[in-house]
Amino acid sequence: MFPQKTQIMPTVGQETYPLGESNALGYSGAMALVALSHTPLEHRIYLTMLAETTGLNGDCRPINTRELMTLAEIRSSGTVRRGLEGLIAKLSIERQNNGNGGGAIKRYSVRTPEQILTQRRAMGIEMYPPEFRIRDGNRFERAITRVAANANLSRREAQVALCCVEGLTNAEIGSRLEVSEQTVKFHLRHIFIKFGVRRRAELISRLLT
Description:
It is a single chain. This protein has two domains: 12-122, Orthogonal Bundle (Arc Repressor Mutant, subunit A), CATH 1.10.10; 137-208, Winged helix-like DNA-binding domain superfamily/Winged helix DNA-binding domain (Arc Repressor Mutant, subunit A), CATH 1.10.10. A three-stranded antiparallel beta sheet has the order 1-3-2. It has helices at 29-37, 40-53, 65-71, 77-89, 113-122, 137-149, 155-165, 170-177, 181-195, 200-208, and strands at 63-64, 93-96, 107-110. Helix content is 52%, strand content 5%. By secondary structure, the chain is mainly alpha-helical. The chain has ten helices and three strands; from the N terminus they run ααβααββαααααα. α1 crosses α6 (137-149) and α7 crosses α9.
């Protein structure tokens, strides 16, 4: 449902990004779901927009591409535009109609995580990212929230941890995420350390109970 952009400039960041970035808005279950649906580039731009455009009363002001380049410290306008198009497709932001003609600077408004999920639900879009489909939604949302609360996890580590919650084997996780089984084992070692557990069963218990 959500197309993933794979070509990201090195200046934007690493292949994975922390799900628990320190930000004044905090990480709720809704934010965790939204974060998992974004690419690293998209989420960097989204968090920048959310932090810069949301006031204390919850109102959002429009922001343009040039502002985003400065605020997100991304040097390429094309890179910002790719991220913005991805966020529009995922209903995370919307383009504003300024009524000044085609040559005017495009401006965008950002939705809060709760608004995004409400909008996606209204459009019949799955709440969970495409790589996660699980029947027990309440328990899985609890796992997502706890994964998001661990500021040390990378996005890929978060994906692997949540695949473990689904009961997938290392080979199945590798197939789903399109990485090798050895790569999955590498991520699991780091996940265990970051959650203070020694084995998969302890990790699953930590995330679900």
